[in-house]
């Protein structure tokens, strides 16, 4: 390989460097993972300022293409969720990183420079100062579904770490959970009299802004009711539907990026070309009257859409894309597959996938042609052979994901007198087999009680207690489980001899 230099801000073109110097640190982000870098940071970059193009030879594109608007371009102060590593890595390269946009035909690399600072989320002093800064107008979140610690109507106040946070916050000390950290930051903002702001959730949950609000207010109430009242009046909580398939980065991805740019980048992110962001403008009756009371980047100029009623968009995405992902993530490994595209080449996976989509389509509040288009696009996106999206990554935390992706549309069907359907039943049965028979693959503390002896009723009790005593769902999932077990016993041309002996 020709000369490879470490990636720093010096790699940016002169106009991009000029834009970067003007960036206003108005967005604070919590959860500095792959998805934030491929999605919100990319939208923010494209929303204002000039291109973040690569100055060096070998570049193949620019992350931003907007002309300067006259307003200062926005910048992001990003915090890791759990470990400091990602912040340290990014900070070492001036927070500039490569986005590899990977289509079925090839890769395009661009540099993203919208992040202006990266910090360890455990550094509570820096976190408080960032949230309390009068320049901060928006907090965005990508912390995973499980991190909200959500139970009906609020945070799980009986969970030991949430209880510990409440005690710590009462003593004026820092918190460790996401709801606790948000309360800690917002208390500092109240203390600084820095005024209103918006909290935007970008995690795969229905009504994710409402969930963020509920968990924050419940923890704040337990700490200090005046603080809760201040947060209610000053912080808007914005729900958003986010979409861009972004697998965890591998060493091979890093090498690909280096080949394209000539830089050694330790914070590369790879994503599909498709991207969607739909944000709700609806506000709570007792909160700020504007969803973004302190302003925001012009994300719409980068393709984001603002709507009053988000529900159809989030249901489309969660009940088709994410439900399909979860079905494949549990069924696929049982059949010897490792990635989404591998599972998509196996009719034993695609048949229940299409059934799952048929079932969701019947209760989606959208025109049939829109649903057909979305399904056609998903087939193509899932089949992209160059996006190696590992089923194991998607499988994590099924106990939190399945209620949102699979149980919610199923409940909607039952409410309308429709049958359970084999697609949803297969997803739930495959999850049961995954957690009860593939312990080495399971990463889900919510599923800890489901061992080899667990039954379908136990599964439903955990995911959907209201369905656990109803004969139809139990029978449908049991029948689906039998079907999967028969598949596992049947030699198939899709399975290598090694795989044929594996699961059971
Ligand atoms: N990757 C995608 O394709 C994609 C697409 C749409 C939405 N999302 C949403 O973004 C989330 C993150 O995805 P990612 O690809 O960036 O994952 P990632 O593993 O790269 O990053 C996850 C981030 O969340 C933080 N985190 C995890 N658990 C936490 C906890 N308990 N408390 C605080 N922080 C915690 C981690 O520290 C990390 O910063 C997903 O869970 C999903 O809700 C991801
Ligand atoms: O990121 P998670 O863990 O919520 O879910 C895994 C995937 O289903 C998800 O990341 C999708 O790739 C994404 O939602 C596509 O926009």
Short description:
The chain has 504 residues and is of the alpha/beta class.
Walkthrough of the structure:
- This protein is of the alpha/beta class.
- The protein has 2 domains: 5-308, NAD(P)-binding Rossmann-like Domain (Rossmann fold), CATH 3.40.50; 312-501, N-(1-d-carboxylethyl)-l-norvaline Dehydrogenase, domain 2 (Orthogonal Bundle), CATH 1.10.1040.10.
- Helix content is 46%, strand content 13%.
- The protein is built from 20 helices and 16 strands.
- α11 (311-334) packs across α16 (398-415) and α17 crosses α19 (471-489).
- The longest helix is centred in the middle third of the chain and has 24 residues, at 311-334.
- Bound molecules: nicotinamide-adenine-dinucleotide and D-Mannitol-1-phosphate (44H).
- Nicotinamide-adenine-dinucleotide binds next to α2.
- Nicotinamide-adenine-dinucleotide binds at residues 31-36, 80-82, 142-145, 147, 178, 203-204, 242, 244-246.
Would you spell out the secondary-structure blueprint of this structure?
Elements: E1 5-6, H1 14-22, E2 24-30, H2 34-38, H3 40-47, E3 74-79, H4 85-92, E4 97-102, E5 107-112, E6 115-119, H5 124-132, E7 138-141, E8 150-151, E9 154-155, H6 160-170, H7 178-192, E10 197-201, H8 208-223, H9 225-234, E11 235-238, E12 240-243, H10 251-261, E13 263-264, E14 269-271, E15 276-280, E16 305-307, H11 311-334, H12 340-343, H13 347-361, H14 368-383, H15 391-395, H16 398-415, H17 422-437, H18 456-463, H19 471-489, H20 497-501
Parallel strand pairs: 1-13, 2-3, 2-7, 3-6, 4-14, 7-10, 10-11, 15-16
Antiparallel strand pairs: 4-5, 8-9, 12-15
Helix pairs in contact: 5-7, 6-7, 6-8, 7-8, 8-9, 11-13, 11-16, 11-17, 13-17, 16-17, 17-19
This protein binds nicotinamide-adenine-dinucleotide and D-Mannitol-1-phosphate (44H).
Nicotinamide-adenine-dinucleotide binds at residues 31-36, 80-82, 142-145, 147, 178, 203-204, 242, 244-246.
């Amino acid at each position: 390989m020709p000369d490879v230099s470490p990636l720093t801000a010096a790699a940016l073109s002169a106009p991009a460097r000029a834009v970067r110097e003007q960036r206003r640190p108005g967005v604070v982000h919590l959860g500095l993972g792959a998805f934030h870098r491929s999605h919100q940071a990319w939208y923010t970059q494209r929303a204002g300022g000039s291109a973040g193009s690569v100055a060096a030879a070998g570049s193949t594109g620019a992350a931003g293409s907007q002309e300067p608007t006259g307003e200062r371009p926005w910048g992001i102060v990003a915090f890791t969720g759990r470990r400091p590593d990602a912040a340290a890595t990014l900070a070492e390269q001036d927070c500039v990183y490569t986005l590899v946009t990977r289509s079925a035909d090839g890769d395009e690399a661009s540099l993203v420079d919208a992040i202006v600072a990266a910090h360890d989320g455990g550094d509570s002093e820096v976190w408080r100062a960032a949230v309390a800064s009068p320049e901060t107008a928006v907090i965005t979140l990508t912390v995973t579904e499980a991190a909200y610690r959500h139970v009906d109507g609020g945070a799980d106040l009986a969970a030991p770490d949430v209880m510990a946070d409440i005690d710590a916050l009462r003593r004026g000390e820092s918190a460790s959970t996401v709801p606790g950290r948000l309360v800690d930051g917002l208390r500092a903002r109240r203390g600084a009299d820095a005024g209103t702001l918006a909290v935007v959730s970008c995690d795969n949950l229905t009504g994710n802004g409402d969930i963020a609000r509920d968990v924050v207010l419940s923890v704040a109430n337990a700490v200090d009711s005046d603080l809760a009242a201040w947060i209610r009046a000053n912080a808007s909580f914005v729900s958003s539907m986010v979409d861009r398939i972004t697998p965890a980065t591998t060493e091979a991805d890093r090498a690909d990026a280096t080949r394209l740019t000539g830089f050694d980048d330790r914070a590369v992110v790879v994503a599909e070309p498709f991207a969607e962001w739909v944000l709700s403008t609806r506000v709570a009756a007792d909160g700020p009257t504007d969803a973004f009371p302190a302003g925001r980047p012009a994300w719409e100029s980068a393709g984001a859409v603002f709507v009053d009623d988000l529900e159809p968009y989030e249901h489309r995405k969660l009940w088709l894309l994410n439900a399909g992902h979860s079905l494949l993530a549990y069924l696929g490994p049982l059949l010897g597959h490792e990635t989404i595209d591998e599972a998509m080449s196996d009719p034993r996976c695609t048949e229940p996938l299409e059934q799952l989509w048929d079932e969701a389509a019947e209760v989606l509040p959208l025109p049939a042609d829109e649903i057909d288009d979305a399904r056609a696009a998903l087939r193509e996106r899932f089949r992209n052979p160059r996006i190696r999206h590992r089923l194991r990554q998607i499988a994590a935390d099924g106990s939190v994901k399945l209620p949102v992706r699979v149980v919610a549309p199923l409940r909607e069907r039952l409410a309308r007198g429709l049958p359970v359907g084999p697609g949803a039943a297969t997803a739930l049965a495959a999850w049961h087999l995954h957690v009860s028979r593939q312990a080495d693959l399971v990463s889900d503390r919510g599923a800890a009680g489901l061992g080899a002896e667990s039954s379908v009723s136990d599964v439903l009790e955990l995911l959907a207690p209201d369905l656990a005593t109803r004969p139809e769902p139990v029978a449908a999932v049991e029948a689906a489980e039998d079907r999967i077990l028969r598949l596992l016993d049947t030699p198939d041309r899709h399975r290598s001899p090694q795989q044929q002996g594996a699961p059971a």
